[in-house]
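note to self — DONT lose this again. spent like an hour looking for the file last time. sequence + predicted structure for the chain T wanted, 179 res
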Amino acid sequence: MKRFSIFALLFLIPVVLYAQGENYIIGPSDVLEISVWGEADLSRQLNVRTDGFISLPLIGEVKAAGKTPGNLQKELERLLRRYIKEPHCAVIVVEPRSKRFYITGEVNHPGMFLVDSELHLTQALALAGGFTQWADKGGIVIIRYGSGKQKRLEFDYKRIVKGKSLDPLVLPGDTVIVP
């Protein structure tokens, strides 16, 4: 049974990491599952704080934001070597909260979506199933927060698709409103 557990840890965990995106960058508010093989007291689920750090027993504060799960795994193993002989860790992003954006209003599938790469407004609207028949395509608004301030950015979908306006990027934390 012990050999199967080691096999699962060493061979199945990388599959899970690959499945969630090997290039995923951890951000504030993401929920991580940290597993340390053979050390149940060190294994836990935790949130990445707004300052980008996580806190673990023995090793203390570790910067998680800005790293891939694989890079964070290697750093945790390096830090744990001071206390544990040959530590083996797994880092899984359970909830990628830092990459969320929202679309509301006259779209077919309003809700929360994830930005995992560069995403333009037209692509975000497609993710939400396109417009309803009542949508005002000329009055789309993106609400964006930055530096403690709210910005209201207005866009005309018709001008974007005709090439008369740029197709803006949708960023994590944005709310797209289709009146």
